[in-house]
């Protein structure tokens, strides 16, 4: 059986998006860093945890998360992917994008990618 997309929302990621994706796809695993004891963790710690647990990171942080993700890739460290959704993207559009990706792709398609959403 193929692996399923799993999302890890960073600390500042909008709860309304997380909740909307959960309502749309109740079977999808979407976890907040707060739920796994990483509420105050640094971006590198969040990315390390995501890599260990095969989560794609969800963030609004266009300034630092992208840099730390690129550093992981350049260092040859595992990086299952980062989806950057700018704060100004409407919540419904963000939910649609994340649901579509979860339904129509496999986790390995996003390995070592930093993708701005919506596509």
Which regions are unreliable across 5 or more consecutive residues at pLDDT < 50?
A: none
Give a quick account of the main beta sheet: strands, pairing sense, barrel closure: 5 strands, parallel
By DSSP, the count of extended strands is 5
Helix share, percent: 25-40%
User: In CATH's first tier, which class applies?
Assistant: Alpha Beta
Distance between the termini: 27 Å
Strand content: 15-25%
Q: Total number of helical segments? A: 4
What does this structure look like?
By secondary structure, the chain is an alpha/beta fold. It has one domain: Rossmann fold (3-Layer(aba) Sandwich), CATH 3.40.50. 38% of the residues lie in helices and 15% in strands. Strands 2-1-3-4-5 form a five-stranded parallel sheet, with helices on both faces. The chain is globular, with a radius of gyration of 13 Å. The mean pLDDT is 96.
């Amino acid at each position: 059986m193929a692996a399923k997309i799993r999302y890890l929302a960073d600390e500042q990621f909008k709860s309304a998006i997380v909740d909307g994706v959960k309502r749309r796809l109740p079977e999808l695993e979407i976890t907040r860093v707060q739920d796994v004891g990483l509420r105050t963790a640094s971006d590198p710690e969040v990315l390390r945890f995501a890599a260990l647990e095969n989560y794609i990171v969800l963030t609004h942080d266009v300034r630092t998360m992208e840099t730390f993700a690129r550093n992981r890739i350049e260092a040859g460290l595992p990086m299952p992917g980062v989806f950057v959704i700018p704060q100004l993207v409407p919540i419904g559009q963000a939910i649609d994008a994340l649901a579509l990706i979860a339904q129509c792709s496999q986790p390995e398609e996003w390995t070592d990618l930093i993708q701005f959403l919506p596509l």
